[in-house]
Amino acid sequence: MPNLNTRGALSIRNVTKIYDPEGVNVMAVKDCSMEIAAGEVCMIVGPSGCGKTTLLNAIAGFHSITSGEILLDGELLCGPGKPKADQGAERMVVFQHGALFPWKTLAQNVAYGPRVQGRSSKAEAMEKARDMLAEAGLGNVTEKYPGEVSSGMSRRAEIVRALINDPKVLLLDEPYRAMDALTKSIMHESLLETYDRTKVTIFFIIHDLEEAIFLGDKVHIVTTRPCQLKKTVEVNIPRPRSYQTQSSEEFRHLMEEVNEAVHEEAIKAFQAGERELA
Ligand SMILES: Nc1ncnc2c1ncn2[C@@H]1O[C@H](COP(=O)(O)OP(=O)(O)OP(=O)(O)O)[C@@H](O)[C@H]1O
Ligand SMILES: [Mg+2]
Q1: Is residue 31 a contact partner of residue 14, using CB atoms and an 8 Å limit?
Q2: Are strands 75-78 and 67-72 parallel, antiparallel or unpaired?
Q3: Which residue among 27, 29, 53, 209 has the greatest number of ligand 1 atoms within 8 angstroms of its CB, and so is best to mutate?
Q4: What pLDDT, in 10s, does the model give residues 127-169?
Q5: Who is most buried in 8, 116, 139, 218, counting CB within 10 A?
Q6: In the chain, domain spans
């Protein structure tokens, strides 16, 4: 089925980010460019510490960039004369470590965004939150607190909390990293279902290469620090995808392609680490 989404196209153009803690320059991202089409699931893989989160944070507006520009649907988020993007509900982030309010129920957490933005009344926001949680298979835990449900459930609730704002882009920074394999596969299926429903653009940082191919339309492999696009692998496996997909010849071929590029960078990162230690 063609993706008819026309919102959420991200252009990352020649972005450089230099941190300057106490006068010591750390170049995290260098001249990095990527084009992400509206409604695309774009997976980012690369060595640890290479600058992936830095790039995501710049898109979210959590920190500035040193040079280059980032556009959303052709509009400048940050670039010349505007080092930092405004934070906005059209770009929602789900972090590596959970960020639900522990003192609010799942429904209250999900309803929070529309409530504080004054977009709907409390009753309307709560009703929508409960409906959306039910759609995500969490209908029977809407009145529970995050501490009372499994980590998988609270991560799913976090994605619902992001989606209730109807974002153009969902920015995911390894939200399932610490989970066991079974929970993770359930999370991925749930994310794919959500994607099929919403067709929201997804920018997803992930370490696991198989998962990157299973979920993505494209896998962008980035270099060891400073982060730059090394290679883009297109995943032309039709959706909906199932776990059987992973045993296909096509999948294995893609795995080899991604693995080779990542491995090269991992070796460089390792050698760079050794040089730093020497
Ligand atoms: N606030 C900061 N000040 C100074 N340096 C920073 C800051 N944040 C990150 N860095 C450095 O920038 C580099 C890139 O960090 P970043 O967190 O973006 O990498 P990453 O690819 O997300 O890593 P990981 O895969 O481990 O999550 C690292 O060398 C890190 O130490
Ligand atoms: Mg990171």
Answers
A1: yes
A2: antiparallel
A3: 53
A4: 999 999 998 889 999 999 999 998 888 888 999 999 898 899 9
A5: 8
A6: 1-86+170-278, 91-166
